[in-house]
Amino acid sequence: ASGGGAIVATASAAGLVPWSPDPFYTITKHGVVGWVRSIAPALEADGISIDAICPGGVATPLVGVAATDEPQPHLLSAAQVAEAMIATALEEGSGRAVSVVAGRDEVRQVHDFNPIPGFNVEARGGAPRAAPRVGVRRWPRRAPGPTCSMTGWRT
């Protein structure tokens, strides 16, 4: 294999702005966007781009819209989301969140995040790390404990 490629992770508009009806949904979608932004520099060295697609409401049975129903102007179709994903995968850039919202002439909007001063996102040893800060307490590492037999994770 020659390497390279594109990954488009599915988040949600709730990954960019809070959605009070379900804060746990918002937390997970913010996590997807954060993961994409965090892992992008490490993947870039291998020629792999990664972005997050953040659609608004999509006309699916999950929101009570059957495939045979009339188009809903305030909801995206699944085809619009798929087209936005393909366009995002084909574009240059990585570590972005791309919102997709119905009812606009241009349904896609790219959110290209600027670096935060004092935070180094260069990949060191294969993973992005924060620059050291003065006065930050370093917690001692825990001694290895027993592992969970089902997952292998340390408890």
Report the uncertain regions: 120-140, 147-155
* Number of helical segments with 4 or more residues: 2
Note the run of SSEs as H and E: EHEHEEEE
- Determine the mean pLDDT: 75
Structural class: alpha/beta
Shape: globular
Proportion in helices: 10-25%
Per DSSP, what share of the residues sits in E-state strands of 2 or more residues?
A: 15-25%
What Rg do the Cα atoms give? 19 Å
Largest sheet: 4 strands, mixed
Q: What is the tally of beta strands? A: 6
Distance between the termini: 38 Å
List the strand order in the largest sheet. 1-2-3-4
Task: Put the structure in a nutshell.
With 155 residues, the protein is an alpha/beta fold. The chain is built from two helices and six strands; from the N terminus they run βαβαββββ. The chain is 23% helix and 17% strand.
What does this structure look like?
By secondary structure, the protein is an alpha/beta fold. It is built from 2 helices and 6 strands. The protein has a 4-stranded mixed sheet, sandwiched between helices. A hairpin with a 2-residue loop joins strand 5 and strand 6. The longest helix is centred in the first third of the chain and has 22 residues. The relative contact order is 0.15. The C terminus is likely disordered.
Index terms:
155 residues, alpha/beta, two-stranded antiparallel ribbon, disordered C terminus
List the helices and strands and how they pair.
Layout: E1 5-10, H1 23-44, E2 48-55, H2 78-90, E3 97-100, E4 108-111, E5 123-124, E6 127-128
Parallel strand pairs: 1-2, 2-3
Antiparallel strand pairs: 3-4, 5-6
